[in-house]
């Protein structure tokens, strides 16, 4: 596999540290590093083209996020996201996405509204062609537009983090044509409510969208995706 050369993109120490952290975090959330797998500083440093120092600093930050566990005299092990974490994330997201949609009614720009409408129409087109990969990409972008439209950097940051945390299971469950179509229909309802400045309806449908997404995950492999025995634990 071709190495990811972080140094070629940045020279500032803080940016380098941030890049290393984000890359390892992305690899954990995407499933490249499996739950309970040991992360080795030297191997990751060589892959990313950096010294052990920014990798070690990234490990500390990842432990604060609960994505890895550093065991003294043993190493750093991936904790990742558990089934319980996914449930918590979706219950929190259901409330925050509702708030986000409510605020978007007041703050969405004409350009964002146009892009949101186009997103829904494009997803319908790709649904008619059975293009599930494109629908998954458009699903991600719809939520990004919604988060940006709320005009709150704090809420946007929280929601984008939560969205990233469940990347693996979303990829799996959105591969279903039935759920992809249902999800886009829910996006249409959110878009229409925001366009009509109907705050109560926007909040309600965005909230229900997250509940529906979680219930679909439970039916389609959530536990199989995230639950696994812990080889790094004490025997």
Description:
This protein has helices at residues 13-30, 41-48, 52-64, 83-107, 110-129, 132-149, 153-165, 167-173, 177-195, 199-219, 222-226; strands at residues 38-39, 68-71, 75-78. It is mainly alpha-helical. The chain folds into 2 domains: 13-78, Orthogonal Bundle (Arc Repressor Mutant, subunit A), CATH 1.10.10; 83-223, Four Helix Bundle (Hemerythrin (Met), subunit A). The chain has a 3-stranded antiparallel β-sheet with strand order 1-3-2. A hairpin with a 3-residue loop joins strand 2 (68-71) and strand 3. Helix 4 (83-107) packs antiparallel against helix 7 (153-165) and helix 4 (83-107) runs antiparallel to helix 10. The chain is elongated and about 60 Å long. The two termini are 34 Å apart.
Features:
235 residues; Arc Repressor Mutant, subunit A; single chain; 3-stranded antiparallel sheet; 2 domains; disordered C terminus; Four Helix Bundle (Hemerythrin (Met), subunit A); mainly alpha
- Our estimate of the beta-strand percent is under 5%
User: In CATH's first tier, which class of the largest domain applies?
Assistant: Mainly Alpha
Radius of gyration, in angstroms, nearest whole number:
19 Å
Q: How many E strands?
A: 3
Largest sheet: 3 strands, antiparallel
Strand order of the largest sheet: 1-3-2
């Amino acid at each position: 596999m071709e190495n990811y050369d972080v140094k070629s993109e940045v020279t500032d120490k803080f940016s380098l540290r941030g890049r290393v952290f984000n890359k390892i975090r992305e690899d954990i959330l995407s499933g490249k590093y499996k739950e309970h797998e040991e992360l080795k500083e030297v191997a990751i440093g060589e892959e990313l083209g950096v010294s052990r120092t920014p990798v070690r600093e990234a490990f500390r930050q990842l432990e604060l996020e609960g994505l890895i566990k550093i065991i003294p005299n043993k190493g750093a092990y991936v904790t990742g996201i558990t089934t319980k974490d996914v449930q918590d994330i979706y219950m929190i997201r259901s409330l925050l996405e509702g708030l986000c949609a409510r605020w978007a009614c007041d703050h969405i720009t004409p350009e964002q509204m146009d892009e949101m409408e186009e997103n829904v129409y494009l997803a319908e087109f790709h649904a008619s062609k059975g293009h599930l990969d494109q629908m998954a990409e458009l699903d991600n972008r719809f939520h990004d537009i919604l988060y940006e439209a709320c005009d709150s950097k704090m809420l946007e940051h929280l929601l984008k983090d939560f969205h990233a945390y469940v990347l693996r299971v979303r990829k799996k469950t959105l591969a279903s044509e039935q759920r992809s179509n249902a999800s886009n229909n829910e996006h249409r309802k959110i878009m229409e409510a925001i366009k009509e400045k109907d705050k109560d309806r926007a909040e309600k449908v965005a909230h229900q969208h997250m509940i529906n997404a979680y219930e679909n995950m439970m039916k389609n492999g959530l536990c199989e995706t995230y639950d696994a025995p812990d080889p790094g634990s004490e025997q």
